[in-house]
Amino acid sequence: xxxxxxxxxxxxxxxxxxxxxxxxxxxxxxxxxxxxxxxxxxxxxxxxxxxxxxxxxxxxxxxxxxxxxxxxxxxxxxxxxxxxxxxxxxxxxxxxxxxxxxxxxxxxxxxxxxxxxxxxxxxxxxxxxxxxxxxxxxxxxxxxxxxxxxxxxxxxxxxxxxxxxxxxxxxxxxxxxxxxxxxxxxxxxxxxxxxxxxxxxxxxxxxxxxxxxxxxxxxxxxxxxxxxxxxxxxxxxxxxxxxxxxxxxxxxxxxxxxxxxxxxxxxxxxxxxxxxxxxxxxxxxxxxxxxxxxxxxxxxxxxxxxxxxxxxxxxxxxxxxxxxxxxxxxxxxxxxxxxxxxxxxxx
Length: 347
Ligand code: GTQ
Hints:
This protein has helices spanning about 5-20, 30-35, 50-60, 65-70, 165-170, 190-195, 220-235, 330-335; strands spanning about 45, 70-75, 90-95, 100-110, 110-120, 120-125, 130, 140, 145-150, 155-165, 175-180, 215-220, 240-245, 260-265, 275, 280-285, 290-295, 295-300, 305-310, 315-320, 325-330, 340-345. The chain is of the alpha+beta class and about 350 residues long.
């Protein structure tokens, strides 16, 4: 039998020689490639809006929305510097539009969600129809649709952008085009998609052209009312409080093929049972104060703060006051691929 030192030398020499042929020994990395359970290379992190907002406003003086195309401060996972990712599959950023500004029309295969954090009265236009956005509204920009944003109000507007940029990059399926004009021509009266698709009815002969929801604004007033009704009807779920998922009314599936979106109400004093799932999740705090514990990390939060919980990390939420949390993740993709798992056991 060869002595360990000479055996290791022989192996190293072998690895070098096969390396020349762009080959590598699986047995040196099998454990990392096929881990017994998820071992995310990103971390729980949070962004305090009081600290973030001054920089957002400073960016407003540095560059116009027109020059920037999208004036956004990316929320980057601290464990993935330079990646522009908040999780390995998701992008998040805070977009600022000042009164009178327009973020010019473009389209791309990446899908986007907007979750309105501050202000009201700016619009986003999708394929010729505008919708006015208010705090807590969840707005969709479907894949490959023309969109521009503008602010006709008198106050700055800030929203959370959630995009599937890293997923699309992984597939090398990204395409983008700029519009011919900054603002697309309005071809459809405001409220048309609401009337056609968001009233429990659908146009009789309408056939969906894509998986993305035909509704593109889910207003907070309705979401809040639904949560309130749910809270009156019975006790909260031990892990989630009162949690609803947004749907495409034509399919019952997620409103965006690549991103699931959720809203949950945690009643005052509620302490959630430990929970983990394989979809790393980004949260935006809509109402209230509280904290979320992930491992040893305690993230205090209040209205307009943001935080991210990694895949398979055990999370416990505690609400000091009635609290409402918006969140998004890649769960619909994982479900399509038969990968999604959750663990409610608290172990
Ligand atoms: O609004 O189209 O935060 O294309 C990043 C890329 C926003 C947008 C972002 C984008 C957009």
